[in-house]
UniProtKB/TrEMBL annotation:
InterPro entries the record matches: NTF2-like_dom_sf (IPR032710), SEC_C_motif (IPR004027), YchJ-like_M (IPR048469)
YchJ-like middle NTF2-like domain location: 29-126
Name under which the protein is recorded: SEC-C motif domain protein
PANTHER family: ADENYLATE CYCLASE-ASSOCIATED CAP C-TERMINAL DOMAIN-CONTAINING PROTEIN, UPF0225 PROTEIN SCO1677
SUPFAM superfamilies assigned: NTF2-like, Sec-C motif
Species annotation: Desulfocurvibacter africanus subsp. africanus str. Walvis Bay
Length: 160
């Protein structure tokens, strides 16, 4: 038996596999989060699509997800926190997914939102952590515009 890719310490057959294979329901947001991470590791793209909240699946790019899942190695996920709403119908899981692409370790941090509908948990959306948005203060300089340094050359031939 092999350990589950979600880093729970349990065997795959006793942890995420029954959820992915639709033999058991995820018991809460954290269980679904772990199963979704594991689905990337075992390349079960159908589960990734089906575990999305109905009505949000139109943007699911199966080919891109499949390529990413195949290109990466998946050493584990860290659950930073898991919160269940008082009504038991929604929850948030803050996690750090670890993966390696071309030998380079990577991390993806997110606060994921889950919701229960008709007795099943679904991934709704998430807030990706650690991404910085840059705001340009001046107009963008085109490659063929005059260089702002004043040389009289085109930007691409000077400072560009």
């Amino acid at each position: 038996m092999s350990l589950c890719p979600c880093a729970s310490g349990k065997n795959f057959s006793e942890c995420c596999e029954p959820i992915i294979k639709d033999q058991a329901k995820a018991g809460g947001p954290e269980a679904l989060m772990r199963a979704r991470y594991t689905a990337f590791a075992v390349q079960d793209i159908d589960f990734l699509r089906e575990s999305l909240m109905p009505g949000t699946r139109q943007d699911f790019d199966e080919q891109a997800v499949r390529q990413w899942a195949q290109a990466a190695q998946w050493p584990g996920v860290e659950i930073v926190s898991s919160e269940l709403a008082a009504d038991g119908e929604s929850g948030v899981v803050h996690f750090i997914a670890r993966y390696t692409v071309n030998g380079k370790p990577q991390e993806f941090e997110e606060k994921a939102i889950f919701q229960k509908q008709q007795g099943l948990w679904y991934y709704v959306d998430g807030e990706v952590r650690g991404q910085t948005t840059y705001r340009r203060e001046s107009p963008k300089i085109g490659r063929n515009d005059p260089c702002p340094c004043g040389s009289g050359k085109k930007y691409k031939k000077c400072c560009g």
